[in-house]
Amino acid sequence: MPSMRPSHITLCDKVRKKIETDFKKGIHLEEFADGKIMTLKKLRQVFKQIYGCTPHQYLLRVRMEKAKLLLEENELLVKAIGYEVGYKSLNTFIRMFVQTQHCTPLQYRNKCVDVASGY
């Protein structure tokens, strides 16, 4: 298991915050892992040790949570929601949504409508 210095924890927290604020654009870990504090490989290891997932998995999780909120709260088209959470391709958004949520975005929205209306 990789050792965690305070500088490692601080850097991983910066990565997490960047993901949460810039999830639409995504991130380039190379911005953070310049080899002075951590290498790219070490950054991924320490991030996973702290947060239980890789930075890429965390980005996917944040995007899916934002997409679910948008599906629940408004009638935006699925394509627009995919774009709002950082996907340029509708097919990629739907594929990633199904992979993580085990239903399509429309099925998810319909479940939310059914629950809200008591069905």
SSE order and pairing:
Blueprint: H1 6-21, H2 40-51, H3 55-73, H4 78-84, H5 90-101, H6 105-117
Helix pairs in contact: 1-2, 1-3, 3-6
Descriptive account of the structure:
By secondary structure, the protein is mainly α. It has two domains: 6-52; 60-117, Arc Repressor Mutant, subunit A. 66% of the residues lie in helices and 0% in strands. The chain has six helices and no strands. Helix 1 crosses helix 2 (40-51) and helix 3 (55-73) crosses helix 6. The longest helix has 19 residues, at 55-73. GO terms for molecular function: DNA-binding transcription factor activity; sequence-specific DNA binding.
| Series of secondary-structure elements, N-terminal to C-terminal | HHHHHH
Specify the number of helices. Answer: 6
State the major sheet. none
Shape: elongated
Q: Work out the count of structural domains.
A: 2
The helix-and-strand class reads mainly alpha
What is the number of beta strands? 0
Protein name: Transcriptional regulator, AraC family
GO molecular function: DNA-binding transcription factor activity; sequence-specific DNA binding
Keywords: DNA-binding, Transcription, Transcription regulation
InterPro entries: Homeodomain-like_sf, HTH_AraC
Give a quick precis of the structure:
Keywords: DNA-binding, Transcription, Transcription regulation. The chain is an all-alpha fold. It has six helices and no strands.
